[in-house]
Every structure is written in C-alpha cells, then in structure tokens.
Amino acid sequence: MEKNKENTKGASKGSKNGKASSSKRINLSDSSFYYNRELSWILFDERVLDEARDKTNPLMERLKFLSISASNLDEFFMIRVASLRDMINAGYNKADIAGMTPAEQIKKIGEATHKLVDKQYSTLTRSLMPLMENEGIHLILKHEDLNDKQKKYVDDYFMKNVYPVLTPMAVDSSRPFPLIRNKTLNIGALVSKKEKDGKKGGGEKEFATVQVPSVLPRIVRLPAEEGDAVILLEEIIERNMGKLFANNDVICAYPFRIMRNADLTIEEDEAADLLKEIERQLKKRQWGEVIRLEVADDIDKKLMKILLKELNCTEDEVYRIQGPLDLTFLMKLCGLEGYDELRDPDFKPQPVEELTPDKNIFESIRKKDILLHHPYETFQPIVDFIRQAARDPDVLAIKQTLYRVSGHSPIITALAQAAENGKQVTVLVELKARFDEENNIIWARMLEKAGCHVIYGLVGLKTHSKITLVVRREDEGIRRYVHLGTGNYNDSTAKLYTDIGLLTCSEPIGEDATAVFNMLSGYSEPLNWNRLSVAPLWLKDRFLTLIRREMNNAANGKPSRIIAKINSLCDKDIIMALYEASMAGVRIDLIIRGICCLKTGIPGISDNITVRSVVGRFLEHSRIFYFENAGTSEVYCGSADWMPRNLERRVEILFPIEEEELKERVCHILDIMLKDTLKARIMDEEGLYGRIDKRGKELISCQQEFCMEAIAKTEENVKLVKSVENKRVFTPETQVDG
Fold this sequence. Notes:
This protein is of the alpha/beta class. It has 22 helices and 27 strands. It has four domains: 2-33 and 534-727, Endonuclease Chain A (Endonuclease, Chain A, 2-Layer Sandwich); 39-141 and 323-348, Polyphosphate kinase N-terminal domain (Methane Monooxygenase Hydroxylase, Chain G, domain 1), CATH 1.20.58.310; 148-263 and 289-317, Polyphosphate kinase middle domain (polyphosphate kinase like, 2-Layer Sandwich); 353-531, Endonuclease Chain A (Endonuclease, Chain A), CATH 3.30.870.
C-alpha cells in the first residue's frame, strides 16, 4: 500500500494546522454529529433496491435485488421496529445518539419506509415487468386477465391441488376472529347468505378468511402460446373463493399480510433450561403484536375497518400496496429455466492451491498460514479440515463454535462422526442466533446424541465468534491447528457472502484458542492474550487503542492511516475516537455495507473520513481492519462489527494477519474495494449515498475483479477469465430507471 503511505503523510502534516487542539473545545457527544441507526439502515435497503433499478444488471438479477430489499424490510420490521414499539409501550423515552426518542424514530421510519415501498412497486410495475414482457415472461397479476384456456387450467389446478389444502374460516357469533400467523399471506372476504331460491341475499355481510398455503408453490406456470406465463397462487384462490364458501355470495375478496413482533425476550437468568425456554419463546413469535399490515390498495372500506379493529392496528401501520403483496416471490421467479442470458455469468468458487483434496491438510498448514477469501475461493477446505480431523487417528480433540449452519451441514455430520470415532468433541451451538434458533436446537440435539459435548452459549451473551480448534498428537508433541473466520460455518451462504478465513498452527494463536474455549465452557478468563482480542471484555479497548495510536502518530508527523471494512458502525465511543483521529490528521477510509451513524464532511471534525458502501452480487460480510502504525502496518480480521452489541454483548474474536504475503493479499483486497467505481456508493455530507463519477476513471467492480483473479490463479482458466470479462459489458455512465 505504498501509494496510501504517501497520501497518509500528507494528511499527518495537516494536523499542524490547529485542528487537533480544537478537539478540547468541541463536544463530540453532540447528537448533531450522528445519524440515527434505523434511518441509516433504510438507506442501505435503498442501495439494495438501487441495484434492482440499475440497467447494467441483467433482468433476473434485478428481480433478485428487489426480492432481497423486500425480505430485508420484513426483518427490519419484525426486529428493529418491534424493539422501538416495545420501548414506547414500556414508557422508555431516552433519545438515541442522534437525539431521537423511540416515538420520533417510529414516525420517521414510517415516512421513510412508505416511500421505500412505493419505490419498490414502481420499480416492479414500471421498469421490470415491461422488460419481462419483452423477454417473453408474462406475470399475470389479476385473474381477470386470464384467457379462456388459462381460466380453465387454473380452475382445474385449484380443484386438484389447492382446494384440498385450504381451510376457509368464517367469523360470526360462534366463531371468533382467527389467529393470523406472522408473515402469512391471507385473503380476507365479505360474504352474505344466499336466498333459498339462489338469488343474491341482502343479508348482513360477514367476514371470512383463508390462508394462502405456504406448502404450495406461490408461482404457478400457465399454458402460453409463446414464452412463459405465470400467475400467483392467491389469484387462483381469489378466483375460486365461491367454492370455499358454499351457499354464500362472495361480495369482495382482497389479500392481506401482517408482520408481528418477532424479537424474542428471553429471561436467561431465570431459565433452568435455555433450550426449552427458547423453544417456548419461538412459539410466541407467531402471535406477537401486529406492527405492520399490508393490504391491496383498492381494498373494500368495510373489510379494511374489520381488519384494523380485529388486528388492533392503526392507519399508520397500514401499507396500501399497488401490486402483489410480499415481493419475496420474485426470488423464485428468478429461477425460471431457460433465461441464462438474463443472469450474471455463473461463478464457481475456485480451489485453494495449498489445499487441494489430494494433500494432507495438516501438512499444508504446518508449512505456512493459509488465507481463504470466500466465495471467490471455495469453502470446501474448511469442511475437509473437520472431516480429516474426524478420521485422523492422531487427532485428540475438536472444538468449534457454531452460529449459523446450512440445512444439511457436512460440518455437523463430520463433528458427529468425530465423536463416534472417540474424539473429544466440544461444540458451542448458539441457540440465540436470530431466526436460526429452531434449526440450531435440532443440530444441538443431534450432536448430543452422537456423543459431543454441547454448550448452549453464555448467559446474557451471544457467541458470534467463528473459531475451530483441532488438537493433534505429533512426533514433536501436541500441536494445535486453528481456523478463524469472519463468516459462519455455513457451506451454503459461503457461496454468497464475502468472508476471510485463516488456517494456522501458530503456537501463540493455538494457546489463545484454547483459552477461548476454556472461557466458553467454564469460568476461566486468561490474564492476557498472545494474539487474539476477544469481546466483550477486551476487544473494544483494543480497537480504541489502535485508533488512538494512529491519532498520536499523525499528531507527531508519523505515517498514519485507518481502513476498516465492516457491516455496520454505530458504536458512539468508536465514532468519537474516529472523529478525534480525523481531527489529528489521520486519513480514514471506511467501507461499510449497511448502517453508519458517523457523519462525513463535518468541518474540522470528519474532513479526513470517507464512507463507501459496496452492494453487488455477493453480500459483503468480511470485517477487515488496517492500521498504518507509523510505517509498520498491522492488519486484522474478525467477526465483530463496530456496534455496541458486538463489542459489549457478544463473544467476538479479532485475529491478526501476520505473514507478510498474507498481509499483502488482504491489503490488496482493501485497495481494490477502494478503487471500485461501479458498485461503490460514497456517503455525502447529508448522509446520502451517491454513485462515483466515472469520468476519467478505470471502470472497476471489485467483486468482478476478485472473481477473475481467483479464476486466473490456475493457468488453464485464463480463457475463462476473458469470457467472463466479455460477457459483462459495463457502460461508462450508470443508468438507473426512474
């Protein structure tokens, strides 16, 4: 990073202009220096939506991004909005770091999310659906638009496949309003009794509802003269509602969907059995307070009035939708066969040179530390690491933390096999991993049955660190092999998330790894650490020390620079330290995928700080930290973001990248990300994110660059690199649909 050092020296000289001394007179706790966390997250989801509006992305990828933005918003409501509602209900009125009370945040969130939803649907109906039509993909949104052949098809489909599954529910004096499950799609109707002669009755209109079954495909393919025609399951049900309520006239029928509070409240101190307590709380998630109600824009007024009353909703919590509810169905639509030219070119994670299947993985690690960059490099070596350890007669023990794993995890299978082979296997399964609680309970029980010692996390803390320790008996004595990572032990998401992993048999790191597991399984806290920094007791102070060291170096005219790649930044102490470093003249580049509460461009305070966000085909998930350290740079990776929850309420690990060759690789990753001109957005003084002006700049997509570099590592794949380069043509000017 030689170029960066030159720039840094210039920044350090700037500290002589009196800015550093001004820090004594500026109150860095002033709320005007911070953005609200929730509103910053909404801006992130807008960046995801922006990818759905970007004309340089293939059509199917644009549909995928729109689906992701909808899924993100669902989780945001179930957790973040729900948490604010809980605060309001509890009478909590303390302002956040941006000076906003929970009630003020809810108001601003409502305004911002209504605009976001409107933008989602205008993107679908005005931009993407016309393009789909041009490609021969006909998405029929209203059953009235079916032709005669299609009408007959859907009616037959309904009777054969759908009708037997449905449970229509009427509401009257003997049948109360049914419990509507969280996130389910339902059709509400008003019905009235038919007269005996079959004529339409003039009786009172009663409410009835039916849940659209999630066990059936929501997208149904129809016969079409050309191309593909599809319709949504709820439209088929709505067309046939009369068959569900015999002897009644269906006056009207409209879809609706609710979002409930899904933020679990677990009293760990009082729970005798954490596993059973979480199972009990999971059931409550389906029936939490309603915090969002989605309805069709033209819903009948009387039907709307009934829903508001029975679901205990206010008009502010209602989202009137001009289009199909729940856009996550678009992810399935992206899977239509025969449209490969409308997708990104396939990318297969590449093999790691040092860890080919024919090599003994322990011998390879003994030669040197090995860095893995997922998904550009395959996650398979980590699976092989556990598998070889499970079978190796010289391996005595395997210890691992698991936060999120895949549905059919080969790592879980290997751990169970290791226990059956007589190894000492200790696994910490974090039961409190949000939305993976049920899955993790299943895995925990399976591992226990296989003979593993399973730890269910720590009281009051989530164990979010990613670490594996293999203890092996060798000729020289006991040797410890360690894997440390920024991402989960999930072989499925490892193909979609960008993460860094390190395989090492460094003795100091091995000692630290043992200390970590002793701390997790018992009450042993080491007096000091060799190489690792661990939250919640030591990591935050470590970060503050590193930031202040750069500040002191800048003040003394020494080279200084900070680069941090993280998912979120909202810890006030970290932000204040970054402001102080900036005021001292430290050049700071932040690559933050999502939330950022720090403000750039504050005169005299954050002049030296830039914030950029990269949103691309892969989810940016790795956490990387670079500190110039007066010319002797230090590079770290870890599992923690700069958030209070990560630094104060979770078990997290920060690990150094010490071998020079590997440090250069990580610095190269940061360099390329800072040079991205196609997928990066830069935060301005107003907190908004804009595309980079590409005039006179090289057109670089960092993720595309990493794909090509991974492919080019093997000589026989150089031709494939060129084909990938040629298939994606990037235009100089980014075109975004209005």
